[in-house]
Amino acid sequence: MAEVIVTGGAGFIGSNFVHHVVAERPDWHVTVLDKLTYAGNLANIAGLPEDRVSFVKGDIADADLVDALVEKADAVVHYAAESHNDNSLQNPRPFIDTNLIGTYTLLEAVRRHNVRFHHISTDEVYGDLELDDPARFTEHTPYNPSSPYSSTKAGSDLLVRAWVRSFGVQATISNCSNNYGPYQHIEKFIPRQITNVVAGIRPKLYGAGLNVRDWIHTNDHSSAVLKVLEEGRIGETYLIGADGEQNNKTVVELILELMGKDPHDYDHVNDRPGHDLRYAIDSSKLRAELGWQPKFTDFRSGLADTIAWYTEHEEWWAPQKAEVEAKYAKAGQ
Ligand code: NAD
Ligand code: TDX
């Protein structure tokens, strides 16, 4: 049996991975280590068998706690992070503490106990592409992050690489594109617009809305991470993406259409400072080397299912809606 620690396992993507492992690896036990910040929610992992999943509330920067857990583990899959660009522009400090000091603390523990480590990162470490550039990000694209969020993620990736090279830590890294699906916090683009429509608020598009994101369903992200954890080569980076480029305007209009509204019934609001123009992932290394394929690639039907989930789970998001919108209103967004 394998004992796997999933940091940030009560967040959007980490909790999806916990469900995936419970379903796919019946002899593994998962320990979720999560601080339950505003973005963590125990409801995301509720109902899983108690003999398969344990929960520890704590900070990944707490060296004593981390050491005691890592000592008993076979692997750590590291999702915990401050994850929202807009928050990082208002107050970068928690991004330094969690994304940099937290990752450093985990690396020191896996180094001491010789435990396998997989680091979850983002395509944002590569900066952005022009709209008409035929290029996509590959594992060889130079790092060029734009925001406090993406620069701390880039820094955490570099720490992992250094700990592999200098200390022989058994680590891999994956950099994924924009995820969507159920349980995503409503501060993020897609759930914000869906819950706006449900709440009778007009969707809010930053600037002209021509920015492009490369969407992947979070279920596909989880299957890719399990693949890299089990079969990835130590010291390697794998890009995860599902060829899902869409501009923001198209996505807002599709959400409105799928929700039976006028597709042009939305507001243009203040743009994000330093707003990355386009992300696009070339995931051919992961596909060729490890044989991974995404399964949830029909964006229209994935979005329709996501809309249905938010519509049916108002109790999950409604308590946070007013606070999230008040914060955006202050920034004119
Ligand atoms: P999220 O904000 O929904 O969840 C983050 C989780 O980490 C929460 O449960 C939170 O309580 C926990 N956490 C935060 N600080 C902590 C700390 N100091 N100690 C312990 N737990 C802490 O984020 P998400 O969207 O699920 O992203 C998860 C990971 O995936 C992040 O590393 C992010 O950079 C990466 N990623 C996200 C996307 C995306 O589209 N959302 C894309 C690529 C990579
Ligand atoms: O209300 C909005 N209106 C809008 O037009 C919001 C919240 C966002 N946007 C735009 C900004 C981006 O171009 O939509 C796009 C997506 O925004 P976010 O959901 O904030 O995601 P992004 O900044 O692209 O980062 C996400 O993908 C990469 C995740 O939050 C990161 O954790 C991940 O690393």
Explained architecture:
The protein is an alpha/beta fold. It is 43% helix and 17% strand. The protein has 11 helices and 13 strands. Helix 5 links the parallel strand 5 (116-122) and strand 6 (171-176). The termini are far apart. The site of nicotinamide-adenine-dinucleotide has 30 residues, from helix 1, helix 4 and strand 5.
Bound small molecules, by name, code or SMILES, are: nicotinamide-adenine-dinucleotide, thymidine-5'-diphospho-beta-D-xylose
Shape: globular
CATH class of the domain at 2-179 and 216-240, named: Alpha Beta
The CATH superfamily of the domain at 2-179 and 216-240 is identified as NAD(P)-binding Rossmann-like Domain
Key structural traits:
single chain; 333 residues; alpha/beta; Rossmann fold; seven-stranded parallel beta sheet; two-stranded parallel ribbon; 13 strands; 17% strand; globular; binds nicotinamide-adenine-dinucleotide; binds thymidine-5'-diphospho-beta-D-xylose
Can you give me a brief rundown of this structure?
By secondary structure, this protein is an alpha/beta fold. It contains 11 helices and 13 strands.
Compile the SSE list and pairings:
Layout: E1 2-7, H1 12-24, E2 28-34, E3 53-57, H2 63-70, E4 75-78, H3 85-90, H4 93-113, E5 116-122, H5 148-167, E6 171-176, E7 179-180, H6 189-199, E8 204-206, E9 212-214, E10 216-217, H7 218-231, E11 237-240, E12 245-247, H8 248-258, E13 267-269, H9 284-290, H10 299-312, H11 314-330
Parallel strand pairs: 1-2, 1-4, 2-3, 4-5, 5-6, 6-11, 7-10, 8-13
Antiparallel strand pairs: 9-12
Helix pairs in contact: 1-7, 2-4, 4-5, 6-8, 6-10
Residues 83-85, 122, 124, 178, 188-189, 192, 204-206, 211, 213, 248, 272 line the site of thymidine-5'-diphospho-beta-D-xylose.
